[in-house]
Design goal:
The protein is an alpha/beta fold and 327 residues long. 25% of the residues lie in helices and 28% in strands. The protein has 10 helices and 15 strands. The two termini are 16 Å apart.
Length: 327
């Protein structure tokens, strides 16, 4: 095995052209870390923001990529055997240290999940970050164990579809929103009992379904719709902001005493891999493998087409989770 590898390195923020395919040294195994032969990886909005220079904590040059699927090459100090199928996510991947836009990835052991699955790589690679984010949003952010219904705002996104599936598997009644009326049937087929067409203001439409408001609201659009989503929650309900599909991090002129209804709880979710256990992730992956959990997947492209994949994100044309196949 050569001590060099192919990787995309970004040295300064900008468009997809800033992702430069280079030959760089392959990471060396060390105690507490796992060297993974990367077979495929999903693309994420956080990488898109970083590429554009909107992640100030990330220093360039950097190999981006916060998740991957592949096989263990070396795992000093652990019980992971060589050749074990694993996924890895978060824990500083592609941010504090080089990530998955590469043929090999070195990841802290606690962020590596061994899995028993025969899913093809491109399908497996779409799952880890998506499942972890939704699981954390529902169980850590929204505490759905004490809820009967949830409103998913931005439901036609890949995260939104996953939220519908996981919420339904937890026996919640789900309402999904979409800006496009033509996608209503798609949301119902995914498990949504109700669909709201989102024109930017949905609180009245939501209360037409639940006059007292929803138990839980998962906000995937972000600050551009957050204040309206707060009005859709019941007293004692929880609103969790997880996504920023609307493209804005900041809520201007926020007045908590006026903008947060009495008794409604506002939180956010940007948790870590530790928020999901190996057993929980294995369960979800097994449900996907048996087609009992249906997720929204987008196009898969070869490693050499990474720039084109980022252009799809720029233009919002992916229509699902983008996966890059390294082999």
């Amino acid at each position: 095995m050569t001590n060099m590898m192919q990787a995309y390195v970004i040295s300064e923020p900008g468009g997809p052209e800033k992702l430069e395919l280079r030959t760089i040294p392959r990471p060396s195994p060390r105690d507490g870390w796992v060297l993974i032969r990367n077979r495929a990886f999903g693309l994420n909005r956080s990488e898109w923001f970083t590429r554009r220079g909107e992640s100030p904590s990330v220093q360039f040059p950097r190999v981006l990529g916060i998740e991957c699927a592949g096989e263990v090459v070396a795992a000093p100090g652990s019980d992971l055997p060589v050749g074990q199928r694993v996924v890895a996510m978060m824990g500083g991947m592609g941010r504090q240290f080089d990530g998955s836009y590469a043929e090999y990835v070195l990841v802290p052991q606690q962020n590596v999940f061994p899995l028993q699955t025969q899913l093809e790589w491109k399908r497996l690679a779409a799952l880890p970050e998506m499942l972890q984010t939704v699981h954390g949003s529902l169980h850590v952010g929204l505490e759905i164990e004490r809820a009967k219904n949830v409103l998913v705002r931005g439901a036609t996104s890949s995260i939104g579809f996953t939220a519908i599936s996981l919420a339904r598997s937890a026996d919640l009644e789900v309402t999904g929103t979409t800006r496009n009326p033509a996608k209503a049937d798609e949301l119902r087929a995914a498990g949504a009992s109700h669909v709201i067409v989102d024109d930017g203001v949905i609180a009245d439409k939501a209360r037409a379904i639940y006059p007292d408001g929803y138990d839980r609201v998962l906000e995937l659009i972000g600050t551009t719709t957050l204040l309206d989503s707060l009005q859709a929650a019941r007293r004692g309900g929880i609103v969790c902001m997880t996504g920023i599909l609307g493209g804005s991090w900041v809520l201007k002129d926020f007045q908590p005493m006026g903008d947060i209804p009495t008794g409604v709880k506002l939180t956010s979710y940007s948790g870590e891999a530790s928020d999901i256990t190996r057993a929980q992730l294995q369960r979800y992956v097994s449900l996907v493998e048996s087609d009992r959990l249906v997720l929204k997947l987008g196009p898969s492209l070869h490693f050499g087409k990474l720039r084109e994949a980022h252009a799809l994100m720029d233009e919002n044309r992916a229509n699902g989770k983008i996966v890059i196949e390294v082999d």
